[in-house]
Amino acid sequence: MVILTHIHYIGDLVPSLLFLFPSGTHIAVEEDEDNWTVLIVTPIMRRAQDLKEASEIIFTDSTSSCDSERSNVTVLMTATKAGAVPIAVLLHKNKSEEDYAAAYKLLVREFPKCFGKKEVRKICPIV
Given this model, what pLDDT does residue 29 score? Predict the structure, then answer.
């Protein structure tokens, strides 16, 4: 079962996400007048959030202009002995500092201990 929270309709995005992701995937959407942010955490990503490595190092990879709306995809990954493992995927409208901050705040609100079971606010008080 896909968990949806804070849903506001964003075109055809939400029905597509429901179809694409496995059972147990957490999808949270936030939208205001100018911007939108989508958080996707699959069950495997949720398990990776609890790894000790997730409290030590996080890689962020962003790709912009992914569609005609110039949306951004940001993947947060941790390094393990098996290689990089994603802990979350963030989709957001623009690549401004405010958009990244909104995306990270959505992640922290939905998963406050996503970095190796540590409180994110203690690691990064800005978020």
Answer: 86
- List, run by run, the mean pLDDT of 10-residue segments along the chain (127 residues): 44 61 81 85 93 92 69 91 94 85 91 88 57
The total domain count for the chain is 1
SS3 letters across the chain = CCEEECCCCCCCHHHHHHHHCCCCCEEEEEECCCCEEEEEECHHHHHHHCCHHHHCCEEEEEECCCCCCCCEEEEEEEEECCEEEEEEEEEECCCCHHHHHHHHHHHHHHCCCCECCECHHHHCCCC
Contacts of 77 (CB under 8 A, 6+ apart): 58, 59, 60, 61, 84, 85, 86, 87
Residue-number span of the structural domain to which 69 is assigned:
3-123
